[in-house]
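> forwarded from #structure-qc
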């Protein structure tokens, strides 16, 4: 199996289903309403909604990097995807989930098409290659999914 197919599978499992680590992001978000997604808690700096927005922005940055655009510089990277959520409506929440799902779908599909030479291309503005970045995005999704699971549990108890 080509390396790019394996990497695309890691991205898909982090977002859609069948992750060996536990539930994928969209499995955890299933049935979650805007009020809970946007809720601020004393146990976390960010809401579930903000985490989803942040993951989407990194997936979109990964897509742009595959097109040759440099990733944001170090002084901007910590702010990527942490924009204030202006409208905490159900429609806005469902739109964010749809944008997250679509960016993940595009990213995994594009990743699957890369050959080994492309995977080894350096990412603009970084000292690593596309393969490393794509695996990093899958890991990033899994990391934040764990945070979402904990916030989800907290919100159900309070």
């Amino acid at each position: 199996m080509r390396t790019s197919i394996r990497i695309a599978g890691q991205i898909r499992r982090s977002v859609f289903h069948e992750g060996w680590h536990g539930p994928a992001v969209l499995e955890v978000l299933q049935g979650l309403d805007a009020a809970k997604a946007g809720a601020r808690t004393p146990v976390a700096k960010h809401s579930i909604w903000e985490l989803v927005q942040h993951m989407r922005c990194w997936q979109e940055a990964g897509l742009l990097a595959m097109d040759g655009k440099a990733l944001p510089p170090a002084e901007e990277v910590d702010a990527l995807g942490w924009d204030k959520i202006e409208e905490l409506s159900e429609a806005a929440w469902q739109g964010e989930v749809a944008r997250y799902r679509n960016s993940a779908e595009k990213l995994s599909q594009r990743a699957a098409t890369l050959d080994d030479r492309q995977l080894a291309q350096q990412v603009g503005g970084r000292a690593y290659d596309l393969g490393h970045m794509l695996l990093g995005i899958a890991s990033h999704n899994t990391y934040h999914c764990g945070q979402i699971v904990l916030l989800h549990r907290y919100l159900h108890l309070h």
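QC bot note: Helices lie at 3-15, 25-29, 34-37, 48-66, 74-77, 90-113, 116-119, 130-157. The chain has one domain: 3-71+80-157.
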